[in-house]
Design goal:
Helix content: 10-25%
Oligomer: single chain
Strand order of the largest sheet: 1-2-9-8-10-6-5
Shape: globular
Strand content: 15-25%
Structural class: alpha+beta
Distance between the termini: 32 Å
Order of helices and strands: EEHHEEEEHEHHEEHEEEHEEHEEEEH
Radius of gyration: 21 Å
Number of strands: 18
């Protein structure tokens, strides 16, 4: 563990979830922007991070009087051969995508609004519509640097795709809405941009399509109409499209708009029951996520899980100064 002065004259320690030697090495590489951000966060008053505010009301708005700060932005390091990218949490998804596209790579964050920041997407834990192929957004996170409730810069995870020992604090921060730590910097796993991508649409059975296809990127269903996104080698995309052509699917110009007002999580097998349920919604087949045009009340949390999360919050932020008023569980 080591420390580095910040722009406010304070000296936030740099902690690591790995060994002491690893902590010292990582601390030596802390960007000046991250150190300055720690100085802005400080050590006392309630504070929240402001990004593009595309999902500002998720989990409840911060309490009145909470001081606002902005996370550092910019793509600071990209290793195409290692398939990793390091950037400030305040970097917009658009900026990150444009930088990676120069080398034919991407990070499939896919927010509803590309003005969203990388840190905001991770803090909300919102996986994009291609989760069926690429997995949960937390699986893209290799390393994070965040500022904790005491003003320390904490490093969690590791800068490569290799396994890292210690607590998986980096992934714990995903979906925590900044209540456990304020993201300053992230290292993400990159992926090749698929050489071909094709949307299909039709009135066929989306569940039958899921059974036929090999790793579709997305299957979206509104109860009467289905959209399918296929990505990969052009020959493979064509072959996969041919599989579902008998079901009534044909080439489309794009996918449907995804409602952003509310999200509801269900068991993937329970999505069939939505047919004829009324209302406007769009379901992610194989995932169990339902997007709605109206806000969705928070689902009840099991008492044991609520107790566990409350205890974790008490340990990491006993004075409730990080995003007070927000509740991710």
């Amino acid at each position: 563990m080591s420390s580095q002065p910040n722009s406010a004259g304070a000296t936030p320690a740099a902690a690591s979830t790995g060994s002491a030697d690893a902590g010292a090495s990582l601390a030596a590489n802390i960007a000046a922007e991250v150190t300055a951000f720690a100085g802005e966060v400080g050590i006392s008053d309630p504070v929240t991070v402001v990004g593009a505010q595309t999902h500002w009301d998720v989990g409840g708005a911060p309490l009145a009087g909470t001081r606002k700060v902005r996370a550092p932005a910019g793509v600071w390091e990209h290793e195409p051969s290692e398939m990793t990218v390091r950037c400030g949490a305040g970097t917009t998804v658009t900026e990150l995508a444009a930088h990676l596209a120069q080398t034919g790579q991407m990070v499939p964050l896919d927010p509803a609004d590309d003005a969203a920041t990388v840190g905001g997407v991770l803090a909300c834990g919102f996986s994009g519509h291609r989760r069926l192929r690429y997995g949960h957004v937390r699986d893209l996170v290799l390393q994070t640097r965040h500022v904790d409730a005491t003003g320390k810069v904490v490093t969690a995870g590791g800068p490569t795709v290799k396994n890292v020992s210690g607590y998986d604090l980096a992934r714990l921060l995903v979906g925590s809405l900044g209540t456990l730590g304020l993201l300053a910097e992230v290292i993400l796993r990159t992926l090749p941009v698929p050489p071909a991508a094709q949307w299909l649409e039709g009135d066929g059975d989306p569940f039958a399509a899921l059974d036929l296809l090999y790793r579709p990127s997305s299957i979206l269903w509104n109860g009467s109409h289905t959209w399918i996104l296929l990505e990969g080698d052009p020959a493979d995309v064509a072959a996969e499209a041919a599989k579902v052509e008998p079901l009534g699917f044909c080439v489309a110009n794009g996918g449907p708009p995804i409602p952003a007002a509310g999200r509801e999580s269900m068991r993937p097998s329970d999505l069939r029951a939505l047919a004829g349920s009324g209302g406007e919604w769009l379901a992610e087949i194989g995932i169990g996520l339902v997007h709605r045009h109206e806000p969705v009340p928070a689902a009840p949390v099991a008492p044991a899980n609520a107790v566990l999360m409350d205890q974790l919050k008490q340990r990491l932020d006993p004075d409730n100064r990080l995003n007070p008023g927000r509740r991710p569980w």
